[in-house]
Amino acid sequence: MTYQQPGIIKDREIEAEVDEMIRNGAKLPRWGWPVPAPYNGAKGRERIYVWQQNRIGDLAGLLPPLGQCSVCNKRPADGRHGENYFRPFALVDICRSCHARIHRRFGNPARWQVFLEEVVAREGWAHSLLTVQIEREEALRIAAQDNWLEGIKNLHADRAAGPQR
């Protein structure tokens, strides 16, 4: 199991274990920052809950140790990124710098494209990310698929093709 090949890890099994821990009384970790903005269809409070789930899973040892950044492959990962908050454990190892770039891509798509061309291997999963936010319904549909990354790639291709007649 590795986070460097998104979609490979058994994220749904981890989610089920963490949900069971919460049902059995595991305390949700305290969020000490302002409520974040919506991201790819998830509301700020939903993002906080996913962070809490991830924290419980990490503290319980359900997540493997961090490896190399799955975007640049140059630095050690110091965190994880989840592109779809409706799949809370569909995570990839990522360094702080690449993580910031991923979240800033919506504000400057041209800069994101330069980053992809200069830093990210052509087969890297980050090439599948859209430069506009995913709507809630789209994110829920992608989350229901077995391979969430394939769902994002398909959405990217559908949007690139434009409206169908």
Quickly list its features:
mainly alpha; two-stranded antiparallel ribbon; 6 helices; 165 residues
Overall strand count: 2
Low-confidence stretches: none
Question: Rough shape?
Answer: globular
What multimeric state do the chains show? single chain
Structural class computed from helices and strand pairing: mainly alpha
Distance N to C terminus: 42 Å
Largest sheet properties: 2 strands, antiparallel
Beta content comes to under 5%
Tally of helical segments: 6
Work out the helicity level.
Answer: 40-55%
- Major beta sheet, strand line-up: 1-2
Q: What is the string of SSEs from the N terminus onward?
A: HHEEHHHH
What's the rounded overall pLDDT mean? 90
The Cα radius of gyration reads: 16 Å
Give a short overview.
The protein has helices at 11-23, 44-59, 96-104, 109-119, 136-144, 148-161, and strands at 79-81, 92-94.
